[in-house]
Design a protein that fits this description.
Layout (H helix, E strand, L loop, with lengths): L31 H18 L2 H8 L3 H8 L6 H11 L3 H5 L16
Helix pairs in contact: 1-4, 2-3
Length: 111
């Protein structure tokens, strides 16, 4: 007994489905306040390291990218993490974690 494969005649259209438009998730983006704090941190790091080129080398990005970030263009979690590593602090300290008024922002001790 022989089986023959019969190709479908159109069936589901024969074309690949249309691609959905790309939309960046808002949950993955920095808020306006976090961007402002990141810009301030990058400007302070630039003052600490002396030049954009030196800071860029430490952070592993181009000097132009840092200058754009400092002027208000862009900003991402990855850039915030690089800034935190260059500063030797946590990511929460760069982006500004909210601390209750009765606790120390450094150690978390109350009173």
């Amino acid at each position: 007994m022989q089986l023959y494969l019969i190709p479908p005649d159109g069936g589901q259209g024969g074309r690949a489905p249309a691609r959905r438009p790309y939309h960046r998730s808002r949950s993955l983006s920095l808020t306006d306040v976090e961007r402002m704090r990141l810009r301030a941190a990058v400007r302070n790091l630039r003052a600490l390291y002396g030049t954009w080129a030196c800071l860029a080398e430490v952070m592993g990005v181009s000097a132009g990218t840092l200058q754009q970030l400092a002027s208000g263009n862009g900003g991402s979690h990855a850039m915030a993490l690089r800034a935190a590593k260059a500063a030797g602090v946590s990511l929460d300290q760069i982006l500004g974690r909210l601390t209750p008024a009765d606790r120390c922002p450094t150690c978390g001790r109350s009173g």
